[in-house]
Design a protein that fits this description.
heterodimer, A: about 220 residues, mainly alpha, MetI-like fold, globular, B: about 220 residues, flat
C-alpha cells in the first residue's frame, strides 16, 4: 500500500465544497432542531397531563428510531405523501427533525433545573409569563444545559456522515467516491477521519470555553 | 393507504433481518464491553503514557462517525495486506471498537465512584491489581452505571442500522429491498421505524426503571 496525499490536493475543490455541505447541513440542521425543540418543550410544558401524551409518545418513537431510518422516511418515503426535497435541503430537514426531540428533552430537563422559588418570586414581582421565560428561565437554563447542547452538537456532526447514504454530496460521500474512483482508500479515509475529529474537537473546545465564560453567572 | 398483503409478506423477511440486527448489535455490545475494561484501566492509570493511550483510543473512536469506521475496516484494512473480513466480522468489529470507547467513558464514572479505601484494603489483603479490577472494582462500577450501559445498548442497536453498507441483510437493508420491490417506500420505512422502536423502547423504559431503582437504593444507603 502506498500513501499519496496529492490525490487530496488534485481534488481540493470538490473536497472543499463537500466540507461546506457537511458544515451547512450540520449547523443549519442543528439550528432548525434547536428552534423546533424549544417550541416542542414549551408546548409540552403548557399542555395538560393527558393532552401532552400523544406528543410524548411521538417523541419516544422518534428517539427509538435510527437516524438512517428517519432519513429514509423523509427522503424516500416523503414523495409518496407529497414531500419532495432536494438532497441537501432534505439533509438539513432530516438533521433538524431528528435532533428536535433530543433538543426538546434537553430543554425539558433544563426548565426543571431552574429553582421553583425563583419562578414564584418572579410571579410575586408581577413579571408576565413572557418576561419570566425570557429574563429568568431561559438565561439560567441555557447555562445549565450548555454541556448537554455541546454533546448533542458533536453527535449531530457525526450523524451528517449518514446523509451520504441519501445522496447528499457531503464529506463522506465525496471522499468515499474519490476513494472508489481512484482506489486511494487510505488517503481519502484518513482525511475523512481527520476532518471529523477536527470538527468534533473544535465543537468540544468552543463548548468548554463557553462553559467557562458563562459558568460564573450561576450562584 | 396501508397495503396489508405486502406487510404480511414482508414479515418473515423482517424476522430474519431482525436476527441479523440483534446478532450484530449484541455481539458488538459484548465485545465492546470487553474492550472497554482495559481501555478504562489505561485511562485511569497513574502512568501518563498509559493515560494518553486510553484517552487517544476514546478520542478517535468517539470522534469518528461509525459509518466512516465501517468504511475504514471494510475497505481500507484489506488493502494493507490483512485478510478480507466477512461482512458480519467487519460489522461486529466496527461496532465493538466504537461502543468500546463509549462504554469506557461510562465505566470511568463508575470506577471513580468506588471509595479508594476498598482498593487500598484489597492491596493490604494481598489481592493482585488485575483481580482487584475484575472482582472488586468492575462489579460495582457496572452496578453504578447500569442505566447508562442500557442506554448505550439502545444507541448501538440504532447505530447498527449502518451495517447494511457493508452488505449485511439487516433490518434496514431488507426494508430498503422491500421498498424497492413494490415502491411502498413510506409504508416499509414506517414499519422499519416501528420495528426498531419495538426493540428499543422496552430497553429504554427498563433503563429508566433501573435508574430510579438505583437512585432510591443510594438514597436509602445514604440515610
Amino acid at each position: 500500500m502506498n500513501f499519496d496525499p496529492s490525490i487530496l490536493t488534485t481534488h481540493a475543490g470538490e473536497i472543499g465544497d463537500a466540507f461546506l455541505v457537511t458544515v451547512k447541513t450540520w449547523l443549519l440542521g442543528s439550528a432548525l432542531g434547536l428552534i423546533v425543540g424549544l417550541a416542542l418543550a414549551l408546548l409540552i410544558r403548557s399542555l395538560g397531563r393527558w393532552a401532552r401524551l400523544p406528543l410524548l409518545a411521538l417523541s419516544e418513537l422518534i428517539r427509538g428510531t435510527p437516524f438512517l431510518v428517519i432519513c429514509f422516511i423523509l427522503y424516500y418515503g416523503g414523495p409518496s405523501i407529497g414531500i419532495d426535497l432536494n438532497a441537501i435541503f432534505a439533509g438539513i430537514v432530516c438533521i433538524g427533525f431528528y435532533s428536535s426531540v433530543y433538543f426538546a428533552e434537553i430543554f425539558r430537563s433544563g426548565f426543571n433545573a431552574v429553582p421553583r422559588g425563583q419562578l414564584e418570586a418572579a410571579e410575586c414581582l408581577g413579571l408576565g409569563r413572557w418576561q419570566l421565560l425570557v429574563r429568568i428561565e431561559l438565561p439560567q437554563m441555557l447555562v445549565i444545559i450548555l454541556p448537554a447542547l455541546t454533546n448533542l452538537l458533536t453527535v449531530l456532526c457525526k450523524e451528517t456522515a449518514i446523509l451520504s447514504i441519501i445522496t447528499v454530496p457531503e464529506l463522506t460521500a465525496v471522499l468515499g467516491g474519490i476513494g472508489t474512483r481512484t482506489f486511494s482508500f487510505a488517503e481519502t479515509l484518513v482525511a475523512l477521519c481527520l476532518a471529523y475529529l477536527l470538527l468534533v474537537e473544535l465543537t468540544a473546545r468552543v463548548g468548554n470555553w463557553l462553559e467557562r465564560r458563562v459558568g460564573g453567572y450561576l450562584n | 393507504m396501508f397495503d396489508w398483503t405486502s406487510f404480511v409478506h414482508s414479515l418473515p423477511l423482517l424476522g430474519q433481518a431482525l436476527l441479523v440486527t440483534l446478532k450484530a448489535s449484541l455481539a458488538g455490545n459484548l465485545f465492546g464491553f470487553l474492550i472497554a475494561i482495559p481501555v478504562t484501566a489505561l485511562r485511569l492509570s497513574s502512568r501518563p503514557l498509559a493515560r494518553t493511550l486510553g484517552a487517544s483510543y476514546i478520542f478517535v473512536f468517539r470522534g469518528v462517525p461509525l459509518l466512516v469506521q465501517l468504511l475504514v475496516i471494510y475497505y481500507l484494512l484489506p488493502t494493507t495486506g490483512l485478510p478480507n473480513l466477512s461482512p458480519m466480522t467487519a460489522a461486529v468489529l466496527a461496532l465493538s471498537l466504537c461502543s468500546g470507547a463509549y462504554i469506557a467513558e461510562i465505566l470511568r464514572g463508575g470506577f471513580l465512584a468506588i471509595p479508594p479505601g476498598q482498593i487500598e484494603a484489597a492491596r493490604l489483603l494481598g489481592i493482585g491489581a488485575a483481580t482487584t479490577l475484575v472482582r472488586i472494582e468492575l462489579p460495582q462500577a457496572v452496578r453504578l452505571t447500569l442505566p447508562s450501559l442500557v442506554n448505550e445498548l439502545v444507541l448501538l442497536i440504532k447505530a447498527s442500522a449502518l451495517i447494511s453498507v457493508v452488505g449485511l441483510a439487516d433490518l434496514s437493508r431488507v426494508a430498503q429491498n422491500l421498498a424497492a420491490s413494490d415502491y411502498l417506500f413510506f409504508q416499509h420505512y414506517l414499519v422499519l421505524a416501528l420495528a426498531y422502536c419495538l426493540i428499543n423502547l422496552p430497553l429504554t423504559f427498563s433503563g429508566r426503571l433501573l435508574e430510579r431503582h438505583l437512585a432510591r437504593s443510594q438514597y436509602r444507603a445514604a440515610e
